[in-house]
Every structure is written in C-alpha cells, then in structure tokens.
C-alpha cells in the first residue's frame, strides 16, 4: 500500500471529528472524495450529523456504504427521527446494513408505526426472511416498542433462526417484564432444540430468573456457566452476581465477587447494592472505599446505592463526601442521585441542606417530591411538608398513592381536622380512596384528629379491607381508649379470614394497655406466637411491659424483659421506668434507669423521668445529682407543647411559656379547671408533686 493510502487509512481509523476533517481535506486535494468511498464513509461517520449531511449531498453517486455512514452519524448523535426522515432521500437502494440502522432508530424513539413501515420495506426486498442480521433487528425493534406479539410473529417468519435471533426473543421478553415467558422460550426454543446458548443469551436468562426470584433456574444457569468456563465473561459474571443480589443471597454474591478476576463499575455497584439491601451498610461503605482505591470511577447508580447506605446508617459526613463526588463527576442534579441526596440529608436530620438541593433540581419526579414531603414530616416540620405538597400541585405534578399516604401521615401529626377534611375531598376527586393504603392512612388521620366517627365511616365504606386497614382502625379505637371496641373489631377481622400481622398485635396490645384490659392483653400476647406464628419483637414487648406496668404488675413486666430473645431496647426499659414512676417504686426505678441510660445516655427525657421519681420521694440529693449529669453532658430538654385548632388557626402552648396573646384570659380558666379536677366528684386528679417537678427541676 502506498504511503498516502496508509496515512488516509490511519486517519479514517481514528474516528474523531478533527481527524475526519484532515482526511476530508486530503481527499479533496487528491481528488479521491468521489472515488474512495470507504474513506469518505469514515469522514461521514465521524463528522457531526450537521456536517455529514451536506458532504453526503455533494457526492453525485453515493453507495449504500456512504448512506449507512450518514445514518450512523445521526444515530450516534441520537437524532432518531432525523435518521428516519433521511431514508427516502438517501438515493440508494437499502442493503442488509441499512435496515438494522433504520430499525434501531424506530426502536429508540420508540415508534412501532415507523418500525412496521421499515419492516414492510425489508419484506419486499426479501431481507427480512433471508438475512439473519435484519431479522434480529426486526425482532428487537418490536420488543423495544413493547410489542412481543409482533416480535414473535417476525421470529416465526424466519426459516433458520440462529442463536442471535433466539437471544433477541429471550431478551425482548426479559426487558418487557415477561420473565416467565423468557424462561419458557429459552427452555423450548433454545435448550429444547439442542441450540448452544451464547453468553449474551445467558445474561438475559439470569436477569429473567432474578426478576422472578427463581432460585432453581438461576442456580441451574449458574452451573451451566461454570461447567462451560464462561465465568470469565464480565457481562455474564455481572449478571450472575446481580441474580444472587436480587434473591438476597448476599454471602454467595460476596463469594462470586471475591473470585472475579476482572471487575468494572457494574460489578462494584452490584455488590454495594447487595449489602445495602441486606441492611449491612458498613460493609457497603467499605466496598465503596475499596472501589475508589482500585481506581474505578463510580457512576450515578453506584452513588445512589452508597447514599442509601449513608441514609440508613445516618452517616451524614460520608454522605457529604459522596455529595462532593457527585458534583465533581457531574451527576449531582441527575434525578436519581439528587433524590437520593435529598433522602439522605432528611434521614440525617439535615433538612435545610436537603431543601437547598431540592430547590436547585431542574426536574423533579414524584419520587423526588415524595422524598421531600416525607423527609420534612420525619423531621417534625409538618406544616412545611404540606407546603411542599401544595407547591407540587401548583407545578402541575400529579401525586401518586405513595405521596398521598405520606401527606396524610404528616397531617395526622399536626391534628388539624379542617386540613384532614380538605385532603379527604382531594382523595375523593382523585379516585385515591379505593387504594387500601390510602384508606388506612385516612382512617389514622381522622382518628388522630379526634374524629373517630369519620374514621369509622371511611373504614366501613372500603369495599376491600386488608390487614393494614384493619390494623389502622384498631389503632383508632385504641388511642380513643375504646379497648373493647378494638378487640371486637379484631374478632371481626379474624372472622373475615384476614390474618393479623406484627403491626396488628402492636395495635391490639396498645389498645388493651390504654383501656386496662390486662387479661385480654395477655391472651393476645400468647396467641400471637402460638396461633399465628408471629414472633415478638421489641415493639410487642414494650407494649406488653407498658400493659403490665400500668396494672402495677412490675415483677411480671420485668420477667417479660428478661425473657426477650434479643437485648431489650431503650423504649422497653422506658415503659417500665414510667410504670415505676406511676406506682412510686423508687427502688426498682433506679435499677431500670441504670439499664436505660446505658442504652441511650443522651436522651434528656429519661433523666427528666428519673428526676420526677426522686422528687416524689423527696430525694433532693439524687435530684441534684441527676440535674448535674444532664448539665455535664450538655443536654437540653426539648420543650413540650400542646396544640389546638381554633377558627382555622393552630395555637401552640409550650411548657412554661406565657407569651400567648390571650394568656390573661386563659390563666383564670386553667385555675378554675384545676379546682374542678381536684373536686371530690371528678374522676380525674392532678398529681401536683409530679407537675411541679416537670416544670421546675430541669
């Protein structure tokens, strides 16, 4: 080959716009632009599509190779529609390479109508039935457009399908969420006919098995990979790893990960995701650090998983480092990453950082709005949560059922009945009330706003009732002190063949506790394991301790704690400490407080509870010692408050605060109410010693 020819070929192989421009200049000067079509094709393919089209139009007699190069330039620029509009103007007869390019443009739009037109053209030219490459592109086009019926019809028209064509069908089924059909086709038209699958086929088979959680077929496919020495194919190894992550077999996934000789960003991201899903956040963060040390650049998928780990672990410092990394690599404001950042900051109680980022997001989907709305509610900012929901509606975004559940949950904390009624109206107009999770949240909202009658109406109007809805109504009766009604509803639930779950039993035990139904509560606690196979968790045990403690059965409550399978949580000890206070058992309270403060030494409320117990017994030295412990740790008591809605306005009254504009009118009324409560004929009495302790000791 002559030196000039070698130079031109090297320039063509570099495939950069600058090299293409140099090649174009050489071809013009040497007069080869219209004769060396294979070199001109490289210029066309490497140029931006806006420059490629005028160059193509200059060539008097283009070949299919030049036309295909022009189409590739448009596809590389993701100009799918423009590529299709070029088809009638190419001045050449399409060949076996032209049809796949046009079909890819149809698939990426996606446009089944255009795809059918190209398919018809391919049939007229006989390429659809004779060229396996074209046939595979037709099958893939229909699959990408979500038409697996058309895909199968096109597959059936081809006389001798090869493994590429068969793989296209398997992949089409898998990508359209028809995993069972993918495995059935693989069994009948690949393995059943003795066709040896390719690594690409097996990637789709592993993905289908992962979608279904089909352990048997997934492991069988993995065994085939090992027997045929295919585990070194990186894409296939990643699919095997993803399968075990999907079925939550994180130990097996770790073993596969450790044996992999080659790892890319998909491999590392998959392993991190596996640890996050299994709740092993520290392992996830460790693997991420190993990935960075190995010099692998994370992508947006990696960062989303790592941010989820930070959110679960409440590790805001690591989360901020990941935020910096996302900004550095340019994906900070991508929808998935930005949403994960908002969620992480919210879960780490950094709502200001979360909302600053949220405000900067150029686009927001319902998942992102849900993260902001629920995050603000989790941080106690219920009014702000509702304001964000209003902004969402004003911007024209339609909420889904998940968002409505979060909005209702936030509203239930504020307890504003008018807001509840407005939301109920919105739910009715939006057709949300048929959703059982929304109905359950609405029942809970009305119950917590003090409107039990409306809660009952919502519950009874539901045509279908699942365990969540039944449990919400049981909670409603419980918080209104109607324990017997809660038990009666539970019996209705059992008679309706709805099996109670863990939450149901927490609701029942709490209802029994608030209504003093000791015997019934014990029976429910026993039946939970013996009849329904629900193992007690710390919430059940805390409710049981509270039930026994309120009845004065402190030794029995202590026995429940001793018999717990795991270590008692702080909430359980707190329930017992509150019972000790109620029954003036100072000796036991000191023992319980020691356990409690070892578990959570920074919770100021526990110190306050212990101080009140000491104050009742007039142990002022112990009161002083406890107060000094609080000061030494730098703890501050969050002031408690009550709230009431009057004329569409919520009035908050903080402990010890007298700044309300109507305080002078309120104070005499409180004194009169206090005298009434002290009267002989009133069933309620104020414990003045404890009340004084609450106000003055901390």
Please compute the radius of gyration using only Cα atoms: 34 Å
Q: State the total count of DSSP E strands.
A: 2
Q: Let me know the largest β-sheet.
A: 2 strands, antiparallel
Q: What fraction of residues sit in β-strands?
A: under 5%
Determine the fraction of residues in helical runs and give it as a percent range: over 70%
Shape: elongated
Secondary-structure-based class equals mainly alpha
Rounded to the nearest angstrom, the distance between the terminal CA atoms is: 94 Å
Which spans have pLDDT < 50 for at least 5 consecutive residues?
688-698
Number of helices: 41
Counting copies of identical and different chains, the oligomeric state is single chain
Mean pLDDT: 88
How would you write the strand order of the largest sheet? 1-2
State the main characteristics.
single chain, 698 residues, mainly alpha, two-stranded antiparallel ribbon, 41 helices, 71% helix, elongated, disordered C terminus
Give a written overview of the molecule.
The protein has a two-stranded antiparallel ribbon with strand order 1-2. Strand 1 (641-646) and strand 2 (649-654) form a beta hairpin. The chain has 41 helices and 2 strands. The radius of gyration is 34 Å and the shape is elongated. With 698 residues, it is mostly helical. Helix content is 71%, strand content 2%. Helix 23 packs antiparallel against helix 24 (366-378) and helix 26 (401-414) runs parallel beside helix 28 (436-448).
């Amino acid at each position: 080959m002559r030196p000039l020819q070698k130079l031109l070929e090297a320039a063509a192989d570099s495939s950069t716009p600058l090299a293409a421009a140099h090649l174009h200049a050489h071809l013009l000067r040497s007069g080869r632009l219209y004769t060396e079509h294979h070199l001109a094709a490289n210029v066309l393919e490497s140029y931006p599509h806006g420059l490629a089209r005028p160059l193509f139009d200059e060539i008097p007699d283009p070949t299919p190779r030049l036309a295909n190069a022009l189409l590739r330039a448009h596809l590389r620029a993701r100009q799918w529609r423009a590529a299709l509009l070029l088809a009638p103007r190419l001045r050449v007869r399409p060949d076996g390479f032209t049809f796949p390019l046009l079909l890819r443009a149809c698939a990426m739009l996606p446009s089944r109508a255009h795809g059918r037109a190209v398919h018809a053209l391919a049939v007229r030219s006989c390429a659809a039935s004779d060229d396996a490459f074209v046939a595979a592109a037709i099958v893939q086009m229909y699959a990408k457009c979500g038409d697996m019926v058309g895909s199968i019809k096109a597959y059936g028209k081809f006389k001798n399908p090869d493994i590429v064509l068969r793989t296209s069908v398997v992949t089409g089924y898998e990508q359209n969420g028809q995993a069972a059909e993918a495995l059935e086709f693989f069994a009948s038209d690949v393995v059943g006919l003795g066709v040896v699958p390719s690594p690409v086929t097996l990637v789709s088979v592993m993905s289908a098995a992962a979608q279904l959680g089909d352990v048997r077929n997934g492991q069988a496919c993995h065994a085939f990979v090992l027997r045929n020495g295919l585990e070194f194919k990186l894409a296939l190894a990643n699919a095997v790893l993803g399968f075990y992550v999907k079925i939550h077999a994180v130990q097996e996934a770790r073993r596969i990960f450790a044996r992999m000789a080659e790892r890319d960003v998909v491999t590392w991201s998959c392993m991190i995701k596996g640890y996050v899903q299994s709740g092993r956040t520290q392992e996830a963060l460790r693997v991420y650090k190993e990935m960075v040390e190995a010099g692998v650049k994370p992508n947006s998928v990696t960062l989303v998983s790592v941010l989820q780990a930070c959110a679960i672990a409440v590790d805001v410092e690591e989360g901020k480092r990941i935020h910096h990394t996302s900004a550095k690599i340019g994906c900070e404001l991508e929808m998935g990453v930005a949403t994960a950042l908002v969620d992480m900051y919210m879960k780490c109680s950094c709502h200001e950082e979360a909302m600053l980022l949220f405000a900067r997001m150029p686009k927001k989907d319902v998942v992102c709005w849900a993260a902001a709305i629920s995050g603000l509610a989790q941080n106690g900012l219920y009014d702000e949560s509702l304001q964000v929901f209003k902004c969402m509606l004003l911007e024209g975004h339609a909420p889904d059922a998940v968002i409505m559940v979060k909005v209702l949950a936030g509203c239930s904390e504020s307890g504003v009945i008018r807001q509840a009624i407005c939301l109920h109206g919105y739910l009715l107009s939006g057709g949300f009330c048929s959703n059982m999770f929304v109905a359950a949240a609405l029942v809970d909202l009305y119950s917590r706003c003090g409107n039990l009658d409306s809660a009952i109406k919502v519950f009874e109007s539901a045509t279908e009732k699942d365990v969540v809805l039944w449990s919400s109504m049981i909670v409603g009766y419980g918080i209104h002190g109607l324990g017997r009604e809660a038990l009666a509803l539970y019996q209705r639930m059992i008679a309706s063949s709805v099996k109670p779950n863990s939450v149901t039993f927490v609701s029942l035990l709490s209802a029994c506790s608030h209504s003093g139904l000791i015997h019934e509560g014990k029976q429910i606690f026993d039946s939970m394991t013996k009849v329904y196979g629900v193992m007690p968790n710390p919430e059940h045990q805390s409710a049981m301790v509270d039930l026994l403690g309120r009845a004065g059965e402190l030794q029995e409550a202590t026995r429940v704690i001793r018999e717990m399978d795991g270590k008692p949580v702080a909430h359980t000890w707190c329930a017992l400490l509150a019972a000790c206070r109620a029954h003036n058992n100072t000796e036991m309270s000191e023992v319980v407080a020691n356990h409690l403060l070892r578990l959570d030494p920074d919770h100021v409320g526990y110190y306050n509870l212990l101080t009140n117990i000491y104050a009742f017994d007039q142990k002022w030295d112990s009161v002083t010692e406890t107060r000094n412990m609080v000061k030494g740790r730098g703890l501050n008591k969050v002031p408690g408050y009550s709230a009431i809605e009057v004329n569409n306005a919520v009035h908050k009254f903080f402990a010890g605060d007298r700044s309300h504009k109507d305080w002078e009118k309120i104070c005499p009324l409180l004194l009169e109410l206090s005298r009434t409560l002290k009267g002989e004929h009133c069933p309620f009495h104020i414990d003045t010693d404890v009340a004084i302790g609450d106000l003055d000791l901390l």
